[in-house]
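Database export, one record per block. Field names are fixed; values are copied verbatim from the stored entry.
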Amino acid sequence: MLRLAKSKSGLTIGAMLLGAVASFSIAPLEIWPCIIIAYVFFMMQLSCLKTKKDVFFLSLVFFASNSYLSLTWLNFVMEGFGELPAFLSNLVIVLFSIFYIALPYATLNVIAFKIAGKKTEAYLCFFLPLALIGGDFYVSYVLTGFPWILPGYSCVEGPLKNYAPLVGVRGISALIYVISGAITLTALRKFLYLPLAAAILFIGLFAEGISYTKDLDKKIDVLMVQGNIEQQVRSQSKSTIEIFSIYWNETKDKIKQDALIIWPESALPIPFEYQKEFFSNINEAFNDKGANLITGLFSLNTDEHKIYNSLVSLGNDKTIDESTIYHKRALVPFGEIVPFADLLRPLGSIFVIPNSSFNYGEKEQSPIKVHDMQFTPAICYEAIFPELIASMDNDKTNGIVMISNDSWFGPTKAPVQHLNIARMRALELQKPMLRDTNSGITAYIDKFGVVQKTLPSDVEGALEVTFTPAQGQSPYSRFGNTGLLVIAVLLLGAGIYRLYKKDDELDEKVTSLVRP
């Protein structure tokens, strides 16, 4: 059996299965220890390999397997909205998983393997984690980025989540790599590394409940409306009155002094600049009663012929001339924007998706103002980019407002995965989040990433919550990826030290005593 497991076919099958185990750590199963278990056994496989070619191939299999099984929900999007046959949509996911997700990790792993030479400890616990951190950045930034399945997202539960306000999701991913390397070396009779894994987990456990931001002594009544409007209807501007009626009927009796009402992404699929009278009437209805509305809509820059997926706050002022409008800064490739559109659109309906001609908003924008409060805005896809959301947080913002349209995902595991990504953003900034969606999952998330209240998916309704604003900044909000940089520098220093240090006699003595 051991000989079979170490054979090329056995290693390949094993890597595929371990990729599947890693996918169990995120929704729908959400078993967070699975991510560490998968990496430990994957690293044990790597410790058996002798050539760069084998390291590259096995890494490609492991990461492609994890990516494919985690992102099968893309089939629903491509088949339902792109009208792509099932076998082609699966092929697209396979190719995406291999060449976009797995390839950078495999390439960087080979570099780490080459640098470490025959020093297994330096490789598994130091240089390999560095390579994987590099892979995380690659999939986050190259070709717009798609950091949907970073290992850290599996840790919205468990002790490692408490590192989020210190080092963010990327730092948690780095700690997963280090823990996995330390446990692997322990299994290979390098027992001095076990305390490293234990220390990281125990520190996380004892950091539970530490608050870096302060709750304000005030409560806000919030109503988040979930319209549950079919995607085909939302894409038609002629249905605006029908759509507005749904949101208005859920809202009109709840407009009162200091109340905040939230409607989801593109709830009103019309340009703000072309319907000034319409929006002025809405603004007046809220302003007269001292309430506020945050809603998704479209916005135009007529001078530059640009259209934006936007969010606006209404009710603050008597007129809408000074209304705060936020333009989405990260757009969905082949969803909201089609790269090389002139070349690709003629090739088929998969490249002719409704509302796929948006423009990017400016990187530097202001928080959304609601009376005497400020909110960090996020629209749907933006939530998967930690640095993007953190860039608008400051010591005066009181929470995060995220609006989304997850009806694209249908009855798949993607809405829960997306919710957990949002929970990580709340954890990182230690600011509560009001998350309103078209069809689910609409939720109130506290500053510790705990979902306090939700609406059922695929129903029309409204979620009423009492919102507690927070103030201040977490270390991650204040210093960004500095914590991750410290981890990387320590790994590099320790790796170089192990490269040039002879085998420790104490390590050998401990090994002989524990396991002669």
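Remark 1: The first helix runs from residue 2 to 6.
Remark 2: The domain at 214-473 is CATH 3.60.110.10 (Nitrilase/N-carbamoyl-D-aminoacid amidohydrolase).
End of record.
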